[in-house]
Amino acid sequence: MKAVEIKSIGLVSMLALAACASAPPPPPAAAPIVASVQVATPVEAPPPAPEPARETPDAPFRQSPPGAGPDPGFTVPTFKRFRLKNGLEVFLAEFHELPLVELNLVVKSGGATNGADHAGLADLTRRMLDEGTKTRTAPQIAEQLASLGAAMGGGSGWDSSSATLSVLKKNLAPALAIYSDVVTSPAFADADLARVRDNTRTAITRRKDSPPTVATLAFARLLYGPKHPYAWPQTGVEASLDKMTPALLRATYEKYWRPDNAVLIAAGDVDEASLRPMLEAAFKGWKPRKAAAPKLPAPAPAATKTRIFLIDKAGAPQSSIRVGALGLARTSPDYFPALVMNMILGGAFYRLDLNLREGKAWTYGARSSFEMRKTPGPFSAGGEFVAAHTAESVQEILKEMNGMRDADVTDAELSRAKDQVIKSFPARFATRATVAAQLAEVAVYGLPATYLADYTKKIAAVTKDDVRRIARKILTPDNLTIVVVGDEKSLRDKLEKIAPVELRDVEGNPIAAAAPAAAPPSPGGD
Questions:
Q1: Backbone phi and psi for residue 164, each to the nearest 5 degrees, phi listed first
Q2: pTM strictly above 0.85
Q3: Among 89, 152, 14, 61, which residue's Cα sits nearest to residue 433?
Q4: pLDDT digits (tens, 9 = 90+) for 359-389
Q5: d(Cα 266, Cα 430) in Å, to the nearest integer?
């Protein structure tokens, strides 16, 4: 009985499952109906009307800004001059606000004395001074100065070389002993020279990868010719460095680093009564020596008519451009008009920048400058420009130069340029070091004692006729040297439309034109 019931139940279950399997699937449930409700966007209330301005007693006064007051006065610091027993001239400018003293020993010879085969000689000689003396090594010099809170520095230019000392007044005497030892007793040791020379050679190698540097150095070479000292970098080239020996540096030092060819500038918290005896003791062993200054050769430009010298920098995204000519000597009577003329052209944010940067956006900045030396230094204009607009940039620079020659300078331009020079002049006397630098310029170029006091008066006296006269004297359109460092393939044809183009290498040396390829033989032979 139980077995039958179980079977019956099993059969019923099977039939039910079969029925479910064969039945069609139920229809999908209807989507729920959702009522659409539109929500109204609230309307913002209009802002309240502004309250009427309250009338105050000073309202008319605040409607216009106050006028500018008179320009603040500035008086050039005074200085005195005296000589030590060995002939060393001393310029002293006293400043007693802080207990600091700045010394700047300036030798009136620099890179212009380098021979044609010895580029970099004056600079290397100066840099070797604090590399060791007959009684102190370079580490000892550094440690002893640091213990006194003192620092030495220096540099070299075309017309001078210098060694500086910054020290607290209370430590002047012991620091002066180290300073005078460095200046008067350099060792020029072989090992020290080899190290400094190797470091310099590395720096020289790196500059070949900088198009702006290549352009500037090539411009000087092409403007002065290879036999002139100005044609070569002040730090030298690989070939000239290889010729530098301790004996050569010693001979150069003996010839130019002497008290009768130098001036010591002192600026700071010291007076003549206390300074003179310290200087006499420190430099008593430094004796004068007679030596004739070398005569510079005449410049020998690579081109007698306007020419473009193209240095290939394949694929360069920008081009370095230098356009210029021989300028003026530092003692030229046209010095002050030239400063104003250059300012209007491109000494600051003036015509070149307004055209090429603001107007055309082809460059981050375009500038012009004079480098005035004992003999005429270079004048140049240019910058770094978008490669696609290289030729047009050259044309625009030439256009701005011609504009200085042939178009009137406006009253606004002249006034702005003179104001910029005059009002920036006091900044040259902001520190003891900058005061010493101004006095060094007076000494090196033999400028009159009233030069600094009369500086702003001379600038203020420059006229529009002066500006045009200098522009016509220097910016000669038919005798310009133009250097372009950029992609030759994309630039040469465009530049040829401006002036004849000549290829040069990164050193400024000529590159012979490639010979035309030989014609292929005919299929049939001879």
A1: -115, 155
A2: no
A3: 152
A4: 999 999 999 999 999 999 999 999 999 999 9
A5: 15
